[in-house]
Design goal:
3-stranded antiparallel sheet, alpha+beta, 3 strands
């Protein structure tokens, strides 16, 4: 036996009223604020990309190949754009990060020469430097990366002012130690 539903002309008016009342009571939520507007990247994907590059030391070209193995086309110029936009969003946090490193009481620093291709106003053969400062506060570690085009001896003066004094003092102590050590064995 077949069942069917019928709508009679009287029911149509009632149905129209129900639909109209239903539409009046519906509101559309506003779009949530996106971390990177006009981008497919969710905050977790950007965080994964940043962590892979700076913590796991996985360059963007390798990340691109990794995504390709999963069948996802994610070019490195896209992920590079995410990194630059994420950096711009985090700029207000940098003074807080520097202050946290200085307050940690123990600072490690390293400068690494890097070669940047197609950098404005510089030859491809010119060395630039990446300075890494690491604080060691209890239960957390803060790391600050600073790119500089100039020679390494000028960097601490421009970045962590308090660190400069500690760095120069420590360097001087190490140098004096080496001189004393050399005097013992010569």
């Amino acid at each position: 036996m077949k069942s069917s539903s019928e709508i009679l002309p009287d029911d149509i008016d009632e149905l129209k009223n129900m639909v109209l009342n239903w539409q009046e009571n519906i509101s559309i939520a506003s779009m949530p604020k996106l971390f990177l507007p006009k981008s497919i990247a969710a905050p977790s994907l950007v965080a994964f990309t940043v962590t892979s590059k700076y913590i796991d030391h996985l360059p963007l070209y390798r990340q691109e190949a990794m995504w390709e193995r999963y069948g996802i086309k994610l070019p490195r110029n896209t992920t590079c754009g995410w990194l630059m936009k994420a950096y711009e969003k985090m700029l207000p946090l940098l003074p807080l990060l520097k202050a946290d490193i200085i307050a940690s009481g123990y600072i490690q620093a390293d400068e690494t020469p890097v070669q940047v291709m197609r950098e404005p106003r510089r030859r491809n053969q010119q060395k630039s430097y990446m300075w890494i400062y690491r604080g060691n506060a209890p239960n957390r570690t803060a790391v600050y990366y600073e790119y500089q085009e100039t020679e390494p001896q000028n960097i601490p003066r421009n970045s962590l002012v308090v660190f400069k004094v500690i760095y120069k003092q420590t360097a001087m102590e190490v140098m004096i130690g080496w001189i004393k050590c050399k005097a013992l064995f010569t």
